[in-house]
Amino acid sequence: MNNSDLIIATIKKAGINCGYGIPSGNVLPLMEAMRLGGVEFILTAHEGSAGFAADVMGRLTDRPGLCISTLGPGATNLATGIGNAWLDRSPMLAITCNLNTSQIGRRIQMYIDHHSLFRPITKATLALRSGNIGKTMSEAIKLALSEPQGPVHLDLPEDVALAETNENIPEIFDGDLPPVASEKNLTKGIQILRKAKRPVAILGSSAMRLKDFSLLKKFIEQYNLPFGSTTMAKGLIDESHPLSIGCIERACRQHQRQFLNSADLIVGIGYDTIEVEYEAWIGKTPLLQVDIEPVDIESDVTLIHQITGDLSRSLKFFISKQPTKNTWSLNELKKHRENFHKKLRPNSDLFTAFQAIDAVQSALPKDGILSFDVGAHTHQIASQWNTPRPHSFLITNGWSSMGFGLPAAIAAKIACPGREVVCLIGDGCFQMTCGELATAKRLGLNLPVVVLDDRWLALIRIKQMRRQFGIYGTELQEEKYRDPPEHYFGVPAFGVSDPKNLEKKIKEALKAKHPTVIEALVNSDHYLETVFD
Asked: What is the C-alpha R_g of the chain?
């Protein structure tokens, strides 16, 4: 057994069944160990996509996602996906395959200092060396899974990869949880909540990593708390719940802010300010923060108390106490939701982006997974989409990088083969990552890829208009729309210009044995009214 075999045996023991990447000569020893060791190597079109896919594998499997690259430009490409896992807090192992140990540090083709590159965007960057492989791998896996979760970088020189070893496969340990909050702190939190007449809870992305999501629903119902969520936390409680107010700080945010300003207490549950800082919307409303870390806020935010510790244990403490009453009525919340969704869908005689989003939701089964990308459509989807369950709404909102949607959808289909997955992206994002269609085709995934084609980088165009700048550098194509080509890399493509045909094509694509591109020619002018209200 060589060190590559040991690395892969350890990875497999940890429950990791595949890794994403692009090969080079330096990567071949590790790839051969993957072939022989039963860990699938999935070839992507770009290392950044490999990182995004590994991020999503970590979210959906609760095991670290695995991505692999060569040195130098492979590593810098991979950095975009690693940064995503760093800010979105997904467990990941990122392996860079390097030169021979004796060549590291010299001025040699492609060489850079990987540890300096990755140190700011990982929990740790570790060197793999003979005699210490098992211990390093075990440490990396535990660290990636420890809260707050995140990526760990491992650098593997080629001579180390090929060297024989007599090390044993190490033990695999679960990640460390945060300490339990003190009973004194928890009791004070309950006292504050009981005094509030119009409290509102906002669920954040730290709550995505709970082992038991039912705790959130029990907590909300016991204290009769209207609840909203950040973008990434949608679906942790079914948004059809009568206490739901929807997503905050996305499309029609002013409508949501007006409602939140009527509260006398905001209860942040696992609220990570990496998605949106409190000072952007909370005003002078007092804040009770319940999370795994101390909250990051400006001095003008009225923080009256924070409970820092293991989130599950904190929620269980709240649930163990007597319920309390407040003045919210379900009718008031229902009226708010209805007005919210009406504002998200302004009158139009055209085929609009919001109509396309509704068509996708109608076609996707309730237990399906939506993966989407970053742009103006992100805001519209986040507010408009009704998310019924956890881990069914995939987006990056910490790193917030274009190019996430398609590799994330591929990973979701691999991680959850029994669930339907739809990828919904803008035309700018499609241009960035369309090469991953070949990845999906090679894997035989029945993945509909819906492209919202409005011929603009719409979010930036809107910002230019709002700031009274010239419209410059944001047009994706000048010519009038034409039907798409018959295929992209052998993946069939279709054009649609109305919501009925879009829904029909998606349903057909979900029955296919291959990916399908569906280009929806939409008018997105309403983004001026909805995305930046």
From this structure: 24
